[in-house]
User: Which sequence fits this backbone?
């Protein structure tokens, strides 16, 4: 006879028994033991016959206060974190080598420490003397930040458990190794184990942890993708080596808006905050020249104006070059195809170069109209109106589609002295604030009305 795999459970206390009995040995209740099927009846052992404890459930309505936040006093950093640092949160920071991740986090640790937080900085890539030299160069030698250099995960967790800091910075997670994993530091197994232990420690002890992560050639954080799912916030520190601007961009945030950006300027004394990035990105605009268009974009919750620059020149190559910096190259190719197929404006035999001034990266579809405007301006050698901003999405049929938050875009443009806007005909705008609105139905009308092309 086949042996039954059913379990006997006490309905009063939940204790499991191998066989039925009239009285529960755990709680002493009578006639409360019932026979139940195991959790899994499928092939293999599954979860077995014994059940776990029930999880308490609650409704969606709650009176709990939002989590408390600690402000660093660095407005750009606080903005990207969603309004401040949440205790017990885990933040993963990625960026290219030498972009300034360690500088940013050392300045952030000093800012939090000066506001009363107990901050610990653990470096696995540099010696303590190197970090102290950087702190002296940045003018942070007097900040109450405690420093350590270690890569042994067990020793780091023991130290954090003994010190009980409010904030811990681990630079970087790829250098850590656990004696429970038989793999080299930086391997997938080691990175996963280190991230899991540190995130679990942060949740259990209420310690906010920053993890620095290396990036691959494609710009993604190295290691298993599961590390990004473990943490609460994922932040990328971006920028071009040849530009002084640095963009701190959140791509995931459980405690605030994603896609928020903070703008910094790299100086000899560290990173300086940029309170008005639109004015900075447009600071070098002089007389109107062909190939320049100003795009009114939205980054997170903040409107940002950037300059899209284009250069179109005859090509001597069989396959003309398409060089794009700061924009999605696939999107640019689509706009070129729409211009040729729907508007009859060919770019065959022409080299096309596109750039976003200041090292900014724009991913919004709303930038389509500004890209098309810069391309047409460069091709026709005709400058756009210097006081005009553009935004709108281009469909494959050549029609212009409306975008979100038009009012915020126009307010930012008017604040910087722009007096007119070119946007889709179907765009709803409430309160343009005295700006002149030029509505365009499709890309053919835009090319004919503004440039006399098509």
Assistant:
């Amino acid at each position: 006879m086949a042996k039954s795999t059913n379990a006997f459970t006490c309905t009063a206390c939940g204790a499991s028994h191998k066989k039925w009995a009239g009285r529960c040995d755990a709680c002493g209740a009578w006639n409360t033991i019932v026979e139940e099927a195991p959790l899994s009846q499928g092939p293999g052992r599954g979860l077995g016959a014994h059940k776990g404890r029930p999880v308490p459930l609650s409704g969606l309505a709650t009176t709990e206060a939002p989590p408390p936040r600690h402000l660093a006093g660095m407005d750009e950093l606080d903005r990207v974190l969603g309004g401040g640092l949440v205790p017990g949160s885990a933040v993963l920071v990625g960026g290219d080598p030498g972009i300034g991740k360690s500088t940013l986090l050392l300045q952030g640790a000093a800012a939090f420490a000066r506001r009363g937080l107990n901050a610990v900085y653990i470096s696995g890539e540099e010696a303590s003397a190197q970090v102290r030299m950087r702190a002296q160069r940045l003018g942070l030698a007097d900040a109450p930040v405690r420093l350590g250099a270690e890569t042994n995960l067990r020793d780091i967790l023991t130290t954090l458990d003994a010190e009980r800091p409010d904030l811990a910075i681990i630079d970087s997670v790829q250098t850590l190794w656990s004696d429970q994993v038989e793999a080299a530091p930086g391997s997938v197994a080691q990175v996963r184990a280190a991230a899991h232990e540190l995130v679990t420690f942060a949740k259990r002890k209420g310690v906010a942890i920053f993890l620095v992560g290396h990036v691959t050639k494609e710009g993604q954080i190295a290691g298993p993708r599961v590390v990004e799912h473990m943490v609460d916030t994922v932040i990328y520190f971006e920028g071009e080596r040849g530009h002084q601007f640095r963009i701190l961009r959140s791509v995931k945030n459980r405690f605030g808006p994603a896609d928020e950006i903070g703008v910094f300027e790299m100086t000899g004394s560290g990173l300086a905050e940029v309170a008005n990035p639109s004015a900075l990105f447009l600071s070098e605009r002089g007389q109107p020249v062909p190939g320049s268009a100003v795009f009114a974009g939205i980054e997170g919750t903040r409107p940002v104006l950037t300059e899209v620059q284009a250069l179109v020149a005859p090509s001597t190559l069989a396959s003309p070059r398409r060089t794009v910096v700061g924009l999605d190259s696939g999107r640019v190719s689509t706009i070129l195809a729409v211009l040729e197929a729907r508007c009859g404006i060919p770019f065959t035999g022409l080299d096309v170069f596109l750039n976003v001034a200041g090292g900014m990266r724009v991913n919004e579809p709303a930038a389509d109209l500004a890209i098309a405007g810069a391309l047409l301006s460069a091709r026709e050698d005709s400058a756009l109106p210097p006081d005009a901003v553009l935004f709108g999405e281009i469909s494959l049929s050549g029609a212009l589609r409306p975008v979100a938050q038009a009012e915020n875009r126009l307010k930012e443009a008017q604040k910087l002295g722009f007096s007119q806007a070119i946007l889709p005909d179907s765009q709803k705008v409430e309160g343009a604030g005295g700006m002149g609105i030029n509505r365009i139905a499709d890309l053919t009308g835009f090319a004919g009305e503004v440039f006399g092309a098509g």
Notes: The longest helix spans residues 188-205. The CA atoms of residues 39 and 45 lie 10 Å apart. The mean pLDDT is 88.
